[in-house]
Amino acid sequence: MSRPKEISYLASHEWVKFVDDETALVGITDFAQEQLGDIVFVELPEVGTEVSKGDQVAEVESVKTVSDIYTPFTGVISKINEDLDDAPESVNDAPFENWLFEVKGITEKEELIDLEAYNKVVEEEA
Q1: Is 78 buried (19+), middle (13-18) or exposed (0-12) by CB count in 10 A?
Q2: Which pLDDT tens digit goes with each residue over 55-69?
Q3: Distance (Å, rounded) from C-alpha 14 to C-alpha 110?
């Protein structure tokens, strides 16, 4: 699977797509979903929840394990991907299309990396 260049990444295997300067979608990368295996459940945060950079806000459960998902931003959860309630496996099928949550009113953020830097992270861990 080719990874999109136009989005940002975190070394913890989340991806970020900015909607505007203060709003972004967050999902997990192809590498993350491959490591997890078949995803069977996704627990998402509540819309309206105020979050701080680094907070654990979601969980992705697979047949192998449960993985915590952290927010790379300080802001407010403005949307969740409700489609994942009925089809959590869609994250396995298309990880870069199936975002988990949106954060709005971003004030503080983790250091994001570009595709080249993310590919190096994956190479080191593979």
Answers
A1: middle
A2: 999 999 999 899 999
A3: 11
Strands (E), 29-65: 39-43, 50-51, 56-62
Report pLDDT for 70. Answer: 95
pLDDT-based confidence at 1, cuts 50/70/90? low
The Cα–Cα gap between 61 and 91 comes to: 11
Task: Collect all residues with Cβ–Cβ distance below 8 Å to 80 and sequence separation of at least 6.
Answer: 44, 45, 46, 47, 100, 101, 102
CA distance 90 to 97: 9
* pTM of the predicted protein model: 0.95
- What average pLDDT does range 26-53 have in this prediction? 97
CA gap 94, 44 in Å, rounded = 18
Rounded Cα–Cα distance for residues 87 and 39 (Å)? 9
Task: Output DSSP code: residue 6.
Answer: S
Give dist(CA 65, CA 108) in Å, integer: 30
Going across the sheet that includes 50-51, the strands are 8-9, 14-20, 23-28, 101-109, 73-80, 50-51
